[in-house]
Records
---
Amino acid sequence: MPALKRPEVLSAVYAAAGGKIAARDIPTLFVQGGQTLYRSVNPAGTYTSMPKPNPGRHLSKFAANAAITPADGVLDLGNRFSGPSGGSIPHASGLYCVQQQQALINESAHYSGKAHAWSLSGRCVLRIRVMGSILVADLSPHNPRALRFLRELHGASWDQMVDPNDCSVGRGIGLAIAHSGYLRGLSIQTVRESDRSIDENGDNLVLFGSPGQPIPGLYIDQAIYFGKTAVPEIFSVAFP
């Protein structure tokens, strides 16, 4: 996971990005109401404990909602675009989702080290619906304005923003978006490779919020548990 190695670079990028965002000089994207998002979690994780229900039962919505409540912010959990600044800039929490299933597989394969076909083994995928349209920054490379936006940020580049070892540039941008007052998150293409095509990546979506507080406007309707077989177990999500 990337680490915050250069707080002074974060501060410079944050200031430059904040000025451009305030001037509405940043590419944006409307995430439409009803759009599906996916989030893969460890059901036995510290912040995502979510034991698999018994057959024929449903997953508690309380447990599912806790699993999509950002845990970083004050804590630095190694996330690229959210967490503390290492200085006086306010922190922000981020919920990391994907907008397409291929991005989910590619990200899972990268972090698990498993073959793509088995990358979700032992994981639970939450299917999330967006309630109401939300405006996010769009810094995916297929948006021609995104690279220009980056070049004008203290000499930043795409490679610096997605540096696998240093999140200084990425977090400076993320915190500026989180504190913009009108942008709810960030859409950005995953840098994880597909096992089928180098062009099949998909987009991540980072939604910003406050530590320990749920991201508003999200509704979980399904939990998919992946075990050691090719067929996952699917549970509805409802209040007890």
---
Amino acid sequence: MDDVIPSGRKILREDGGVLMWQEYVDGPHKGARPLLRYFVGQLGEPSKSFTTPHDAFEHFQNLTGAPSSRPPSPSPKPRRRIVQSN
């Protein structure tokens, strides 16, 4: 993987020397729209290409040991009900 980040590349995850990113690549047919592809690679090594983000993330997890989901966020503080007396 190159140390230079080309334009159009969006870094999705990074853990240690492993990156997961997305970028548009040329389609197989002339004049076709560019295709969105996902890549996972370690610094100084060739990257692996994926067509779906979940396959790319699974490979990223295998390389890094990243958790499968984010920890749950704490619930918001409950609002107190104000009772007005007449």
---
Amino acid sequence: MTAKNEDPHETHPARLSPAALSLLLGIIAACFSFNDLLAWNALRNWQPLGVLAMNLFMVGAIWGLSKLKPSNPRALALLYLLAVVAFAGLSASAKVANVLVAAKTHSVPWAWQTVCVFATNLVIGVGAIWSLWWLKPWKELKGSGEPLSPSTRKAKKLLGLAALVSGVAPLMLFGGTFSKTHPFALFSNGPVPLWIAIFVIGTWLLGQAINKWWWYFSADEHERKADDFGNLLGWALFIVVTPAWWVAARAGLLPQPNAMLLWVVAVALSATGYFWRRN
């Protein structure tokens, strides 16, 4: 007997079980930890540890989002986070592969650390693509079937456009600074190529104009309240941590405050608050 509202001919895509997904994300987190701790052992400064915290936060956010009920914001967040992880893993493995090829060409023995970093980054990239393929978050972007007002349709399109435009900036910055001095130059004050700087600044400003102006005043009251709640969390973190970190650095307790790291954590907390309140 077929239950109501169930199509007997509908095919359901195979999905990773919760345990399998948790195991896969755990492996990705372990690979991130190995790479970042190896870099910390070589550089002996705080930057690899900050990147490790951000990487583990991203993996944890993917796991947490997978537990929420399907929605357009959840789908967009999963798409972006998994794409970032895949890009980070595959681009890093490609760069390390070039180092290995150059060493082979000049008959230089491969260091075990370099081989392991290549393998772990490859696991990160492939694991993220596999998770993306099996979770299929893009299927959640379909409409609910209920009629939508013109303002709601406009708000949804603007939110997607803002996420797409703003998301390009950190990816470009990561790719453009990866080869500068060390892999963690994204969080340093080192130089970046001029064309990358212009592109990143332009896309970020455009994305924020779409999100903080056009989308905000096109969204309904529920969406705006969720956005206000997320912004409050991010702003509260920034105004509490920034002066405390600054004073601690002056006393020699911590390194100098890093604006990019503070921004990443504040934005992540803001996005988490938005998705939590919206759902």
---
Amino acid sequence: MQYPELKAWKIRNADDGKAYIRWLVANKLTFHFDDSPEDIIWSGTDKKPTPEDVAELSRIHDELWGAGDPWAWLEDQELWNLYMGGE
């Protein structure tokens, strides 16, 4: 695994989801939330996710959507700017 910390992520609510989005940004692993992590061609990061990482990203992705709507959370301007690559 390139990202062993993925195993510890649990998304139970919007705060967890927003923290996870920040983690994705910090690790250059953002993707369109309507897509499956299994369908992503990871090209924007130095450390490419392994198949095990992708399995964890998929698990967390399901939890993310189970906890709410990540697109609604991105209405937070600061989080949106981070997600879009700004500051």
